[in-house]
Amino acid sequence: MRKKISLILYTLFFGFSLTLVVSCVLLMVECFNNRNNSEGLEAVSIEPVNDVDTSYQDIGNRLSMVSNSLTGLNCDYAYNTLTDENERYLYHKLNKNLYCIEESTNSDGCYRTEYVVVSGTEMPENSVKRVLDAFLTDHPEIFWINNTFGYAYDKGNTVVECYSLLSAQQCGQYIERLSQRISELLDGVGEIGDDYSKEKLLHDRLLSQCSYADGVSDISDGWQYFTAYGAIVDGSAVCEGYSKAFQILLEKVGISGYTVKGYADDVRHMWNIVELGEKWYHVDTTWNDGEDGINYEFFNLDTHQIEKSHIIDPIAGEEIEQNENFFLPECDSMEMNYYNMDGINVDRFDDETDRRMVEYIVECVNSGSNYLYVTVGSDFDFEDCTSTLFDAPSYRIHHYIEIANSYLDSGHKINREGIKMLKDEERRTIRINLKIGE
Known about the structure:
alpha+beta; C8orf32 fold; five-stranded antiparallel β-sheet; 20 strands; 23% strand; elongated
């Protein structure tokens, strides 16, 4: 009888152990797969507090507080979409807990951050995901968090933990580098009087030191490419990194900026919306970082114009999907569009227009730009204007370049044969790409 009981206990123990091992392996595989997914947050279930070898109460003894020299952003657009008090509580706790990182890695090579207990409720997975997505959308300066989170239910409470890609010491070092580079990019911007000029300078400084990371498709290629750190410190990023970096820089000088999720060229894409003078505009820093230098084709557009080439994801609902926006104000103005602010308007061809065009070309080339932005006046036939500029027998643009070259030094002469044109009849705009030098 004793032998039979021992056999039964052995069988039960072996079965339990095998189940536990298989569960752990599956959890590790799921965490690893989620690390390589840049599409959004992914949830994994963690064991209830009473069933884990190391209780959550003990983890606090092995946490290190990140040394933080970077002040958090005053951005709460996504937060304001959270109406449930438990969701708001979890959001606020993240602002501290994500800076508390365990000293050793877990099975998938990440570091657990301090867990949050939301008492008296079992929050659904989609609710936890909504909070984390909202928080990280409002706070792109928190760049070290993996896109996998864990949650469990314990005695009617919800336990949530996130995972850091860096140790607390590494994180502090990375934050210090990011803070230093941000200070350099912000140098002198606060002294500028108007927000449009601040926005343009920050746009130009970011694009001058960041290049698009070709060949990067997901986090397995390098998590930095998807962060503000990659764009600002490493100088290489994909659209997500560009957009998060621009959001940080704008917010640091008091300009409201936010990221927008969507598609462009049939692939996932991210860009910004910016508030200027109580009106909102779309800005795509990634697409403005051209092979021939910085351009402003996607600088302060209304929704109608951006939707010619971009598809905007919907507003997040109760059942949040992977790709949704929290905040999408109406963007119905082109007042602060680059063509209107810094381009040149042509409504006729006469001596005065000739003089202004030559001055504009010289000014652009001397400022380091090889793009001209022309808006055709509403009373001027668009095709007549483009034909006069670029077609025989007039070739008026060649005439302007010849005169402009007489004012430019030898290192900035314009090659008349290297001219490219991008025209938009609906917007009545012409972008002219000049080739500088031989």
